Here is the input.
Amino acid sequence: MSHEAPNLDFEGSTPYEDYVKADVLTHLQHTLSDDPGEMVFLVTTQVMELWFTVIVHEWETAARALREDRTQVATDALKRSVRELEALNASWTPLAGLTPAQFNSYRSALGEGSGFQSAMYRRLEFLLGDKSASMLVPHRGAPRVHAELEKALHEPSLYDEVVRLLARRGYDIPDAVLQRDVTRKYEAAPEVEAAWTAVYAGDQNGELARLGEALTDVAELVWRWRNDHLVATRRAMGSKTGTGGSAGVAWLEKRARNNVFPELWTARSYV
Ligand code: HEM
Ligand SMILES: N[C@@H](CC(=O)c1ccccc1NC=O)C(=O)O
Here is the structure.
């Protein structure tokens, strides 16, 4: 065979298929209505679930590396996640201009389904420090998902690991913060703010300054995801009640106000 031509001859499935599972992935688009516009809604949601999975993987890698004092490995994983968050956020584009009439064409078929029930998004929030035991309740009937969420609830968040690293690097972090109940939402602490103020005022190329900036990028992009979701929702359904049972836009506005890594922002006033 000529050396320029690709291989055509495989026993059974192709090595591509064995690796990518494209046949499985491209047959998971079970729409619930006959509306042709539903396909992109479903696929965008599935694409975002895949990005959530990648980002959770990066942040778990980062959290583990921090625990082992391998700060550069953590920063590298966080930087990869920044690019991935940019791609995640770019995937809002196909849904960003949905009109209420377009969304209504398949909205009723969604029943009580809501992104609120996304377990991977919940793991992502837990890693950020937005812990809440009640968020496990919707998943009681799904043992694997429930077990993964339960584990994530009881593990220190990515930000808990960052704060513990600051303490090991000599910053004065109180025991109340270091030994906090990690199953509860992280609350900002003045000593952590003071630590970041000192880090920011010091060597801009130091490992903690670089870690702090990677975390700030993450926080900003998570805030952008929440905001893009909020604006797409406002365009598509105004102030209607959500399929998940929440007040809809008003509830999402409250969620979007949640600060990610709060002291990384407030410390900036004191540098
Ligand atoms: C225009 C399309 C969309 C609309 C109108 C919309 C609407 C909503 C509403 C109203 C809520 C509040 C919960 C409830 O249902 O009562 C919600 C929550 C949520 N949605 Fe969407 N959504 C859209 C697209 C998406 C997509 C593509 C994803 C990707 C997975 C997604 C993920 C989520 C998540 C994770 C939550 C929970 C947020 C939290 O817990 O803070 N949504 N959405
Ligand atoms: N919560 C939306 C429905 C919705 O957007 C949705 C439905 C099923 C699966 C994912 C969804 N995306 C975000 O909530 C609504 O109230 O119309």
